[in-house]
Amino acid sequence: MNILIWGGVILITIIIQSTLIPLISVRGIYPDVLLIIVVSYALLSGKESGVGMGFFAGLLQDLASGGIFGIGTLSKLSTGYIFGLAERKVFKEHVLLPILATLVATIFNGVAGLLFLVIFDYKVDLIAALTQNIMPLVCYNLIVAVPIHHVVYRLIQFTAE
Hints:
161 residues; mainly alpha; globular; 6 helices
């Protein structure tokens, strides 16, 4: 039952992120809601769950985006694992948790994606990607991090019962 609920959440999120959220983009940058869900879920549920959520979310994002297949999967999977490691070390109800986690996760996910592109021998302007894509994305993700983390926290509590 738990897998069906979270699978539904990810499917609904990818549909919204692919259709509605680009309408509020600024210079082509819009929040990565899937990343915030993966990070919140990993922080609240652990590394095994974070890897699963990151893999599924990244795979669906790769399928929906039409970009280079596998980059989103690998970067979200690794982000879910890294933040899942901190599950027992964080105070889950603290208001700064989603803000700091989203800040670090957005930078980590962006840099991981760039590194995977470099590993796969794509030409990447790292400075331009950091200043024109990742940093504005950090700001946008921070705006929506707290409400999304709160929803994920409540949904985890609901599915645990």
